[in-house]
Design brief:
The chain is an all-alpha fold. It is about 70% helix and about 0% strand. Helix 3 packs antiparallel against helix 7, helix 7 (about 135-160) packs antiparallel against helix 8 (about 170-195) and helix 9 packs antiparallel against helix 14. The radius of gyration is 21 Å and the shape is globular. The two termini are about 25 Å apart.
Length: about 400
């Protein structure tokens, strides 16, 4: 029997376990900061940017569905909105990174850049863009855009969760059409400021799109996990093979898109053969990160792509969920690959990475589940819900 009309009252154990992991992560993160503050800030940036890009992927899924007036996403939309429930906390979790520039970014300590050409380029960037307090002001603006968008998307959707509630679909569509470009631009420039700026002599206009595409694939993977968990708990009884096939097709399509952005960024840099740009990839084929680079090619793209070619794989709940979980984990490796290679002379992977992920991830999950308690796990009263359940795709 479906529980879609019942408010969600579970998740207590998830909250307890998530907070326990976060507490352990906090303790070891404090220890990691005492041992090596620079390594700890880098690990925290990896965990934080991973969570941010996944949240932005969930937001893009919601806004895309509203903008297109698509009916079938109404059946699983609330699960994505539950993830966005953590966005206010995600915004607050940026606070430690206000203290990171002096430890992480060459523009904050230009004397550390020995190469004269790179130093000249860095000086130019500092004058034009990378300087405080503008760096901090931009970060606040990015976070505010995301938090406001997430709050409005979730609030107006929840406002329809009762019989006879006003139909806010037109309002959600206008919001999505208007703010989706702004959310994407904020995500792109956040990638430039927070991650690409770690390399003082590298720039790529495709960098932001690359990170956001990976986040969208990871968000689809998280959505598949949430769908599976909800159905195991007795919710989403009307979600059938066609809906799983829709998620599987999206995973397949946007995995290819992520690989497309990665390949053409590399191809253009390879064709130009400029040392100042090629250095980005040379750093990532050193012994410490070479395995990660090969993993992203075969583990993040080739193997999942070959599996998702199968019509049957994309229609089975178990395989879509497993591949979704795999691609979510792969996205963390991808973000780590972008940041970790800049931690020379230390090895790219450090023990501080695990507690940082436990801290940020644990708090985010606990907050999201807590905010969802007492709410429906599906947009049961949305006028599109019945049409979404009737969705057929072969």
């Amino acid at each position: 029997m479906s529980r879609d009309a019942e408010p969600f009252s579970g998740g207590f154990r998830v909250i307890v376990w998530s907070l326990t992991l976060a507490a352990i992560g906090l303790g070891f993160s404090i220890l990691g900061w005492i041992v090596d503050a620079r390594q700890m800030f880098a690990s925290y940036l990896i965990a934080y940017f991973f969570v941010v890009t996944v949240a932005l992927g969930l937001m893009a899924f919601l806004m895309g569905a509203h903008a297109m007036s698509a009916a079938w996403p109404a059946t699983v939309r609330r699960l994505a909105e539950s993830g966005l429930g953590a966005m206010p906390l995600v915004g607050a979790l940026y606070v430690p990174l206000f203290f990171a520039p002096a430890f992480l970014y060459p523009w904050a300590r230009p004397e550390s850049v020995a190469d004269p050409a790179a130093r000249a380029l860095l000086d130019h960037r500092v004058r034009i863009w990378l300087h405080r307090p503008m760096f901090d002001v931009r970060a606040v603006c990015y976070v505010l855009v995301w938090v406001i968008a997430a709050l409005l998307l979730r609030r107006w959707s929840l406002a329809m969760d009762r019989p006879g509630a006003p139909d806010l679909r037109a309002r959600l569509r206008k919001l999505s059409c208007g703010i989706l470009p702004l959310v994407g631009i904020a995500g792109t420039f956040a990638a430039f400021d927070w991650v690409m700026a770690l390399s003082p002599d590298f720039y790529s206009t495709m960098y932001g799109l690359y990170t956001l595409a990976g986040g969208f694939v990871a968000a689809l993977g998280l959505l598949a996990i949430l769908m599976y968990a909800a159905q195991r708990a007795g919710f989403l009884a009307g979600v059938r093979v066609s809906h799983w096939y829709a998620i599987g097709r999206l995973l397949f399509a946007f995995l290819i898109f992520w690989a497309y952005t990665a390949f053409f960024q590399y191809l253009l840099i390879w064709i130009a053969n400029r040392p100042i740009e090629a250095k980005f990839y040379l750093e990532r084929i050193q012994p410490g990160d070479r395995g990660t680079s090969w993993f992203l090619i075969f583990g993040h793209f080739a193997a999942p792509w070959l599996l998702l070619l199968s019509y049957e794989v994309k229609r089975r709940r178990a395989t879509v969920t497993l591949l979704g979980a795999w691609l979510l984990a792969c996205h963390y490796v991808d973000i780590h690959w972008l940041v970790g290679a800049r931690r020379a002379p230390a090895a790219p992977w450090q023990w501080q990475d695990a507690p940082a992920l436990m801290l940020v991830g644990g708090l985010t999950v606990a907050f999201a589940v807590w905010r969802q308690r007492g709410r429906l796990l599906s947009a049961y009263h949305d006028p599109d819900y019945a049409a979404g359940l009737a969705y057929e795709s072969r």
